[in-house]
């Protein structure tokens, strides 16, 4: 299957992408991974991206699109992929369509994870991250550490990132509504969008997503 995953910050896209990719035996391709790989490998696109990032500027669409196309050209993506974080706007969506058309393939579905804004703010603002290892993540309500403010795994200090503050989260949601949400309507016109609630246990959301994708793929063309 060839799938695009969309949803606001805090919808659990990364978590669901990992489970869905494993269940479907397709590579999970995230924008963050694309940037890290290209920068660490010193590719031309990575050097361009780093120059923009070091200057505090947004990376232009053409650079991001180039990275995504290079990744989709790799052998493991020949029979399917799950895109997470790309496309992030309509220009990127049109570029992806053009790439797929050149290769005689098409998307099977666009999975839209739906979460109320208040829930997004609660999820993100409640996150606490270990200063020793950012992979150690807790939550003030859903995943409390045994000792408040202390990482269960290594004993490091837990803190809330500046951009996880409620006002910053709402700003990120505004950017999502302005830049990324329009691609849902773009793909809905192609009858590709399946929307599910991303509320509830992770395993239940994954089950819901798999059922929606299967139902969507079985619709008559």
From TrEMBL:
It catalyses: AMP + ATP = 2 ADP. Pfam families: ADK (PF00406), ADK_lid (PF05191). GO terms for biological process: AMP salvage. The keyword Cytoplasm applies. It is an enzyme of class 2 (transferase). The gene is adk. The keyword Flavoprotein does not apply. GO terms for cellular component: cytoplasm. Consists of three domains, a large central CORE domain and two small peripheral domains, NMPbind and LID, which undergo movements during catalysis. The LID domain closes over the site of phosphoryl transfer upon ATP binding. Assembling and dissambling the active center during each catalytic cycle provides an effective means to prevent ATP hydrolysis. This is Adenylate kinase. Residues 30-59 are annotated as: NMP. Belongs to the adenylate kinase family. Its main location: cytoplasm. It comes from Actinacidiphila guanduensis. Monomer. AMP binds at residues 31, 36, 57-59, 85-88, 92, 161, 172. ATP binds at residues 10-15, 127, 137-138, 200. InterPro entries: Adenyl_kin_sub (IPR006259), Adenylat/UMP-CMP_kin (IPR000850), Adenylat_kinase_CS (IPR033690), Adenylate_kinase_lid-dom (IPR007862), ADK_active_lid_dom_sf (IPR036193), P-loop_NTPase (IPR027417). Catalyzes the reversible transfer of the terminal phosphate group between ATP and AMP. Plays an important role in cellular energy homeostasis and in adenine nucleotide metabolism. Keywords: ATP-binding, Cytoplasm, Kinase, Nucleotide biosynthesis, Nucleotide-binding, Transferase. It is found in: Cytoplasm.
């Amino acid at each position: 299957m060839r799938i695009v995953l969309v949803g606001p910050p805090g919808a659990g896209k990364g978590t669901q992408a990992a489970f869905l990719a494993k269940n479907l035996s397709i590579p999970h391709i995230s924008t963050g991974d694309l940037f890290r790989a290209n920068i660490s490998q010193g590719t031309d696109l990575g050097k361009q991206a780093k120059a923009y990032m070091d200057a505090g500027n947004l990376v232009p669409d053409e650079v991001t699109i180039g990275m995504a196309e290079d990744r989709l050209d790799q052998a493991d993506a020949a029979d399917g992929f799950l895109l997470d974080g790309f496309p992030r706007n309509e220009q990127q969506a049109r570029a992806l369509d053009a790439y797929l058309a050149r290769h005689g393939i098409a998307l099977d579905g666009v999975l839209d994870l739906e979460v109320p804004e208040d829930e997004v703010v609660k999820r993100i603002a409640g996150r606490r991250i270990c200063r020793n290892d950012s992979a150690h993540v807790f939550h003030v309500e859903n995943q409390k550490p045994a000792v408040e403010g202390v990482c269960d795994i290594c004993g490091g200090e837990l803190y809330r990132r500046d951009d996880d503050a409620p006002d910053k989260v709402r700003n990120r949601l505004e950017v999502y509504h302005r830049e990324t949400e329009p691609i849902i309507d773009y793909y809905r016109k192609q009858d590709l969008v399946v929307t599910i609630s991303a509320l509830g246990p992770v395993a239940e959301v994954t089950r819901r997503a798999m059922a929606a994708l299967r139902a969507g793929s079985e619709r008559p063309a």
